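Students often ask why inverse folding is considered easier than folding. One informal answer: many sequences map to the same fold, so there is more than one right answer. In these notes we will look at a single instance of the problem. The structure comes first.
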């Protein structure tokens, strides 16, 4: 796989959000916005492009994140500060679910 392409209603907003989440630069305009991933990753980046038609069903793609060196609580605070919404609060043994729709 080379790239991940996401059709959405707010390509600049989603690109800025995921660029901030992944701490990666956002590039592009016109056709869409690109968040490149560090070298050696597959896919090499995520491309957000405007969809002309309205969404008919729920998204069938989600990205699982790992808090890395930080704690889950700190990562939840960081992501909600960037605009994510907590769908299910953290519970022992169950991963919390957050969303940033677009």
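Output (designed amino acids):
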């Amino acid at each position: 796989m080379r790239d991940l392409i996401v059709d959405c209603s707010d390509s600049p907003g989603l690109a800025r959000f995921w660029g901030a989440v992944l701490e990666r630069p956002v590039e592009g305009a016109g056709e869409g916005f690109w968040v490149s991933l560090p070298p050696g990753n597959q896919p090499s980046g995520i491309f957000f492009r405007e969809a002309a038609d309205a969404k008919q069903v729920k998204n069938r793609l989600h990205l699982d994140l790992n808090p890395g060196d930080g704690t889950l609580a700190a990562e939840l605070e960081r992501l909600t500060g960037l605009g994510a919404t907590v769908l299910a609060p953290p519970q022992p043994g169950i991963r919390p679910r957050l969303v940033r729709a677009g």
